Amino acid sequence: MLMLMLITVLSLEGALCLPTLTTVSLVLAGTLRHVHTLKLNTDPCGAGGFGNLYALHSALRGAFPALQELCLPAKACLRGLEAFAGSALHTVRVLRYGPGGLRLSHVRSLLRLSQLRHLDLAGEGWGARWHGGDDDVWDDLDAEDAEEGIQAGADAELALGDATLLEVLPQQGEESVPETWALRRLLTSTPPALESLCLPGHLGKIDFVGGRIIRAVTSDSVYRDHSLRFAAVVLLPGLEATGQRLPLLEVERLAGNPAGVTSLLQPHTAFARLLAKCDRVELRLLELRVGSPHLGPEAAATTAMQAVARAMGGGLPEKLRVSGSSWDCTLQLRPRCQGGGGDRVAAADGRGGSGARGAGGAATAAPAAMMKLTAEQVLERAADKMWAVASVQGAASMAEAAMDAYLAAGAVDSKERRAAFYKLQRMDVLLRGPLVWQLTCGPGSGGGGPLLTDWLGSLVAAEPPPPAAAPGRGMDAAARAVGLKISSCSFAPCSPGSAMAVVTCDCPFAALQLHRAAAAAAARKTPSCLQVSATRAGGGGSWRYAIAEVIRELWDDHLSSVPQPAAAMACVAAAGAAAVADGPADGGGGGGGGGPAKSTAAGTNGEPGRAPGGQPAGEAAVGGGGADDDLQVLMRLLPLLQQAQAAVLDMELRSA
Q1: Architecture label for domain 1-132+174-196
Q2: Handedness of CA 360, 362, 366, 369 (dihedral sign)
Q3: Are the CB atoms for 444 and 454 separated by under 8 Å?
Q4: Are 605 and 582 in contact, with CB atoms under 8 Å apart?
Q5: Where are the domains of the chain?
Q6: pTM for this one?
Q7: Pairing between β-strand 37-41 and β-strand 9-13 as defined by DSSP bridges
Q8: Where do the H-state alpha helices sit in 433-533?
Q9: Which pLDDT tens digit goes with each residue over 124-167?
Q10: CA 232, CA 118: separation in Å to the nearest integer?
């Protein structure tokens, strides 16, 4: 009997319809009176035609008087939960990836649970998921809600917002419209004790205090502009109807082409209106995709970055990722505070105003120096970086030693020879100097590298192939194959009158053969006319990676110009502001007009106002200072990144 009293969690799982699995739990309830958590997983079965969920939940309440947490297989099972009104039940969860959507009937039942503290519709706190292939098994329970779409919005309680919001609804798809209205009803008439709401899809988590939203977090798996518009459609009506503000909005990720991001943040859009209702906005990652020519000129990325900073009241995202068709670069824009309980607050947030970055100091001079940088200088730094890495690696010497071991490893096509083959050094060959520039970028080169192609082929053709012990098959036949086997080559100018090419071969034999031939040619040229080196394949010899590294270093150098005492003070101030934002809101009124920073200058609870992005509102509103310097530097680095990447030409080299 004592052991039965210690059982507090009952988890039932099986391919049974809901009434059958519930009957099993009721049978066990006779001896398990102390269960406070009940988990029912019917995957892949549904309700089996049973529709009286109120009776089912009433039976569960009577059988499990100590029940505090109920985990259900689908949102359709939320119907009838009012049977638990006034009970000990305070947490309701739905199986992860459970089929079906939230409906108004479900919300009506949930609103009757005044004691409800945690509602998890995403299954975050349940280590199980729905695997069933038939997502229609619960449709019979929601049949009576079929007509509750936009038409239901004619109800005065639901018809919140304006035409801007209503225009977004059809974009979500016909199936998601009823769920949108249901969520709006839930957020408008929240159970008074509710503390947290976890949602699948566009919105991730919403926190409450006293029935009011104090924090909303978008999902990190859904990040496109239409997802953020959906978040606005769900959150805005309640805020605008009550005159409340949202203390903190955390956007995990915003990704898209620059034009799409800029369009999303135009003042008339629903998402921009939501930002104007927020005291703080934190954007974890901004991802701008600029890889295709049709996405717009270089200025589009800087315009999008400016639009984001403006929408955040002068703040910046934690990270910025800019990607092209064959490259990407990630910058840590807001270094996080170390310690302090792990609060996700950036030390750089407090760099506005006139404190750390006085006029005439080194920090003020840094942006000016950055403005003078050119794409050619970025390419030169990238070439130097690749060359330095190659010099340290000694890949050519290692390749020669591995080839010697391969040739001495026994008979042709033997097991020993095969084992030695896999130890051969795979490397890329680096060619640098005026000769490379003449063959790729100089007058008469054609700009596409045909002269380089022909020259490389003639070099290898004049050299003997790597020796093998004897003619054979398989790997040794590949070593003795006639011609140069090169898979790709990328090149770019790296200084006035000089260029560098990175040549990738499709096998270690060809790479070593090319390196030997190029080194011999360099020895016959005027000193510095041609330099030859090698780097391990994938070991830092990529133009795309090296350019991104240079841009990252330039940004980090800029950040390091911030005096450490000022950064520490900013960290303390930001952490204190975060603690205030995490507490109850005081219900400040006001509509959504005006800019975000201006609308939050008064603050809450007597504290200084916080602009979106976490900065003090006064600093966001005042021009100049560290935040403006950061944005100014980014406005220069983004075009430099795109120009440098565009200057690199990737080409396939034909076999000689």
Answers
A1: Alpha-Beta Horseshoe (3.80)
A2: positive
A3: no
A4: no
A5: 1-132+174-196, 201-312, 377-546
A6: 0.79
A7: parallel
A8: 434-440, 450-461, 474-479, 508-524
A9: 888 888 887 676 788 777 666 654 544 444 444 444 445 555 65
A10: 22
